[in-house]
Amino acid sequence: MYVHYWKKVPSPACSSSLPTAREHQLTADERRRNASGTSTKFIFNPEEPTVYPSSLPGFFPTLQRCMCRMEPFDLPTLNGLHLVEGLCDGVFLGAEALAGFPSLQTLPHTALLGPHGVNVHGSESRNKSMIIHIENEHEQRKTEDIANEMIGRRTFVGWPFLQEGMVSAVSDSLFKYEKVSIIPGRPPRVISNPHSTQGLGHWKSKAEKIEYFYSKRCGVITGSIDVLLHVRPLKGLKRLDTGAFVKDYESAENETEQAVQMTVSEIVSEDPRFLEKDPPPLSEEFPEGSKVFFLGEHAYGVAAQVSTTTLDTLSVILAFFPSEKAENEKFKNIVVNRMSSRYFPSFKAADMVGLSGRAISKITSSFMVITSDGQKNNLGLSLKFEAKGLKVIDYSRKDGRYWEFSEKAVDLIREYKEKYPEVMRTLDRGGDAMLKSSDVFSSSDADAKVKEVRSWLTSKGIRDFEPVSLFCDQLKKDTVREIEVFADKLNAAKSPAAIKKAMVKGIPRQAVLKPSHAVYRLQNQHFALGDRVTMVQDSGGVPLSIKGVVIGMNAKSMDVVWDASFMSGTSLGDRCSQYRGSTVEFTSCLNLSNPQFVASTNPKEPTQQRPSVPFKPRFGPHPGIQSPPGQQAVAGFRPATQGAPVHIMSNPNRGRGSFVNGRGGSSTNGRGGHHMNGRDGPLAIAHAPHDAIVDADVPEPAAHAPDHHVNGARGKPRGGFGPRGFNGPPGPPRGGFPGGFRGRGGFTSNGDRGRGGPLRGGYRGRGRGNFAPAVA
To answer: Domain Exoribonuclease Xrn1 D2/D3, which positions (predicted)?
Structure first.
């Protein structure tokens, strides 16, 4: 062993001898547990279910119906086999590679080694890189021809990591091409819509961004991007009521743009996971004895077993308790009676208790007071945590940018104010420094008063509040506990003799739900706190067909407390009993309180429509993100308004001094006639209305020669005689005359820069332009 003054390195011999020194302290079972044993192979055996005892009594339950048998497993030996180096014969490479294997050969290209400054990890490469140049196969084609060929068809984007999508539109720098059904009953046609003014710049920016990304990040030269494809990525497969599986693509909000030369229209190897399938026969999809869930109106969500099948219909056996439907309403009522419904904005709550906005903000968060011994005491109610993004259940929440407080919170603040008004009077003081106890309480026993306030807050249960994320909604612990007690009471009262069985014959396949089909069929299902649910997915840690109640809602999942405990259950952060809670996805459960997939049991009746509105629960401050003017939610290529010519609002006579901007004539102060401060001198002319409408395509009227008065006015708008338009030529410098006449009022040279007359001592005008021409 080598020993240093600050560390030591133990030798392997010493370390290996440590376990053997304690071997005599172990029992025979513990020594047998630590010894190496044979491997075990687990085999699924549904024919002979057995009882498997608990491996850890008191923690893990006994498996009453174990459908698995164990056999010793010995690793196979090579038996003289040798390693074959290289690829096997018949392997698929290049463009023929299997789905998921990227290949550069799917697009025609050339490669060249040279300096390019590729930036992958934050800094440009100084050495040479292998740069790929894409050959654009659509370079000589018209955009309209590309649109007619590709819109409505699939394509593959993300080269070389190809992902499937469907082309919804095609656009170039001027138009966007979409397929629209103009005449009902006729096939849709491809029509072109011009971009809006903002859409023109947005399209160019998008094309440049795509080209820059491939060039600097990937080392791929795409060439000039003249055409973009609007692609909706493949989301997966969806199951139809007939049993067929078809491809499901994203909506318009999630479509992406891709350069046409970077897309692949056809591939050799299809992804077997996303192949569309025809409806299988009922006997194959629902074999006899398979477990399903009935979706009929009178026994919605009841577990069933397939009895027989025909060509178009099947028969199932239901097993349920007749009182279950009434029990669902009782669970919902527990939550409804416990939830606080009225919330007030913070400014409204401040008015209700007679406090300012600053005071209500301080008292509902943390309000630290230091006692004489230097100890910090929080006298706030801790109802909101802005920095941590937390709220308190049943007391506070945040809607957009503003906090809201419930009636319980308002009553608590009002009682706090009546009990200790001294604390409320100090809340409006400025500064962020912590106050001392003597600053809050003027009495000699200020520290004792601080402790008294803390004790009062503890008696009100402030320390037991449950801060949760702003982006979720949950029930309180006592409500969850009441749900558990009620569920245990119902389970204790049930007996196997009370189970009712019924057979339903001649129903269509859409009237039952197979557990493996839940992820496809239960899309867009809505949930709320207190809803009664049942587990319909046969994969995961929650037992099949167990029932529970929703106690928490998240953005993409929900928290459920179940009627019975199970091995993989949790306490959901001490919000429920151990092994009774879990977080599950929306598609794994069937909502029994709000049936949304009720199907007819008559094969000849049409199937009820499924919910089409996506379920996206939003809690907390989610500001509404508005698209820029003239842009859609995704791409921004909104068609321009058709019809009347475009007009702009302008006033050619805007100004303060001369005939052009006339409020008068060539007055001393540029507002009137020949009088000192006159506004309506003899040379005044009527000015045009301030909001005159001018056609954008009509040039401004020609001007007369300037009238030489002493104090000229501000002629045309800043920039000279010509308009400083978007595309117009630049005008002379500010001042009216080009060259050296830069005075702010007269026509003096730069040496004698007067504001009004020829010299600084002369008449002062307010105009900036010298003698401006009059309007024709």
So the answer is: 281-505
